[in-house]
Design a protein that fits this description.
The first copy, chain A, has about 375 residues and is an alpha/beta fold. Chain A contains 10 helices and 17 strands. In chain A, about 35% of the residues lie in helices and about 20% in strands. In chain A, the strands form 5 sheets. Chain A has a 7-stranded mixed sheet, with helices on both faces. In chain A, strands 7-10-9 form a 3-stranded antiparallel sheet, with helices on one face. The first copy, chain A, has a two-stranded parallel sheet with strand order 1-2. The model of chain A has no long low-confidence stretch (mean pLDDT about 95). At the A-B interface, helix 4, helix 10, strand 14 and strand 15 of A face helix 4, helix 10, strand 14 and strand 15 of B.
Chain lengths: ~375, ~375
């Protein structure tokens, strides 16, 4: 497991990936993120204490600190490794994926590598609650100083007077957000470089210039452009990890739908609509967004992820390298299990879950029907 | 979808992979196996007729004939391809896997690439039904002239007088099986080459020499060796696709368990035991086999695969490139779906399966509980 830089608790030594793999019965080796050695060390001790307290073998868990490229390569190519969990950059995720696929016996890589999280606002929504959406969107973009993998980084609108007014409202809300400290100075540096880059692209207007402040603080940044410019500059499709977003005005519904497809794979996609929007338009955008993401959000914001059976935190590449899985929620354990069919097996040799009497009292499919009854 | 040479019906243009992908709503392009152009053409017309009859777009299905390497490479690297199903050799499967992993946006490959299907017979089983097992095993090895991917290709025994007697019984049953026609002359040629190779390895006894006959007919072949020789010759771990098997005598239970691990990934693993076998021995072998295969068979034979919810036709590499999935059974559809989470979605925009009233009447998890009730 390769811990994340942005969530040392949820994606660190003791995070969801580790929990899923342990719950499925696998020993876990964690490569701590270089920016959080102390936090990971503390969590590592917590896991060891839990193993001792529950009488599980201490060999179930290991924690490695060190340079990512060296330690990562050694782990990914080790014959005993059977699966890799990773959260981080597309470059590092791709490198692990390629290493794992080139092994004599390839292993799966569950890499989360970035997401633009498009958010579409249709005219009907602006007609009803432009101001509220501006306030909510700025809150979502700047939550945790924009360091959420689900931060809405692209906002799609139809070019009309209502969207101009909405953009002005966004500016007011965003300019009022004070600078806040990012997780590391490196993160701020990368965010500043990305936004500097955006601001120099012809056709991109800098509506709010983010300002660096102190050791690692940053105030939010807002950009606007039209779909033609956005399509012409693939660098505008690179994730700027931090408190910033880009508003993209589209010429028509057709333009909007075609432009959306270029956002690639995403963890989330959001749609705001109102009673004035035609049902076929709403459905067309929803269908388009469904192709792009693992989670669709209607009239809401994508930041904030509930750990529940219905959660999908995943999506087409590069959101994850394994779009059929999720890293958050009850289904996350499926990354680390393998199905086995037991044919003509004596009851005592079956796992408890499959024994005739159903000692676990779980739902099972018996001769095609769902039941909790014994056999 | 790349059709198989050995099952032009079940793994051809109209086989399980095509059915799973279509059922999940995906258009399918089939690369017909070069040995079955006519059969695939007939199935292709059947699929088109079904699309017409059901009013589905004809674009849902395409059939390509041609040389595997050329057509396969073009399909695997095509940007529109989202997943690959394949049944065939380890070399071709690995090539597709590597191509798919090297794409700018990698896609999953569900490749079935061969399986040795170890079958273990413990002394208690031989004490009770040696003759019956010999008869059943020969039937399984020679079913379909040995051209089942689940053919038991390795038989593990403990070296003792009972296993010598059993081997003699195997010889009698196998020598009585008449030559039968294999699917293609090439298959027979490959099988003859593999068995010729086995017969020249020092320490390998040829107990029944398979004989080629007519255009593509073959009589079965039986070899015996000990675990030391088998371990020293990795070529004995290569699948000989056809009516043959190798008996391996092990010096002890420890030797048996350690030798089994070298069989790699398998579609199936089988265990015959009797009332005289110690429960810990039975459990140790069962646990060892569980690590090796997608389906465990007790006191039976692995050939014959039922299409049912409990089926797993898969297993660790090279049995398949995606051991968390199955190519046969109700779960096969999961290879071709991607989960999507719908958050705050208006009822009318939800798939029928998720609408509040539960119009499909399916089992669902609502607030953590299984129910068929509406919300």
């Amino acid at each position: 497991m390769f811990g994340a830089s942005n969530f040392p608790f949820a994606y660190g030594a003791c995070g969801g990936d580790t929990a899923s793999a342990l719950a499925a019965g696998n020993p876990v080796v964690v490569k701590a993120h270089e920016r959080h050695p102390g936090t990971n060390e503390l969590f590592g001790h917590a896991v060891l204490a839990a193993l001792h307290a529950t009488g599980l073998p201490v060999e179930m868990f290991g924690l490695l600190q060190g340079p990512g490229a060296t330690v990562g390569q050694a782990l990914a190519t080790h014959p005993a490794a059977r699966a890799i969990g990773f959260t981080g950059s597309q470059r590092a995720g791709r490198a692990l994926f390629t290493l794992a696929a080139a092994r004599p016996v390839p292993i799966p890589v569950f890499a989360e590598m970035g997401s633009l999280n498009p958010l579409v606002i249709l005219p009907g929504a602006l007609a009803e609650r432009s101001e509220a959406i501006a306030a909510g969107l700025v809150q979502s973009v700047t939550l945790g100083v924009g360091q959420f993998c689900t931060k809405p980084g692209l906002v799609f609108l139809l070019a009309d007077p209502a969207s101009e007014r909405f953009t002005s409202q966004l500016v007011i809300h965003m300019a009022a957000v004070p600078p806040a400290t990012m997780l590391t100075a490196d993160m701020r540096k990368n965010f500043c470089a990305a936004t500097q880059h955006f601001s120099h692209i012809p056709g991109v207007r800098t509506l709010v210039a983010g300002a660096a402040n102190g050791f690692a603080a940053m105030s939010p940044a807002l950009f606007a452009t039209n779909s033609t410019t956005w399509r012409q500059h693939p660098e505008l499709r690179e994730e700027a990890f931090g408190p910033g977003t880009i508003v993209i005005q589209c010429a028509s519904m057709e333009d909007l739908l075609a432009t959306l497809e270029l956002t690639g794979g995403n963890l989330t996609a959001s749609l705001h609509f109102g009673s004035g929007d035609a049902a076929p338009d709403v459905r067309a955008v929803a269908t388009g967004l469904e192709r792009l993401a693992g989670r669709l959000v209607f009239n809401g914001y994508p930041t904030g992820v509930e750990v529940c059976p219905a959660m999908v935190h995943g999506g087409p590449w590069p959101a994850t390298s394994a779009p059929a899985t999720t890293s958050v929620g009850a289904l996350a354990i499926q990354r680390f299990v393998r199905p086995v069919s037991y044919q003509n097996t004596p009851d005592t040799l079956l796992p408890l879950e499959l024994q005739n009497a159903n000692p676990r009292g779980i739902w099972r499919t018996v001769n095609g029907a769902r039941t909790k009854a014994g056999v």
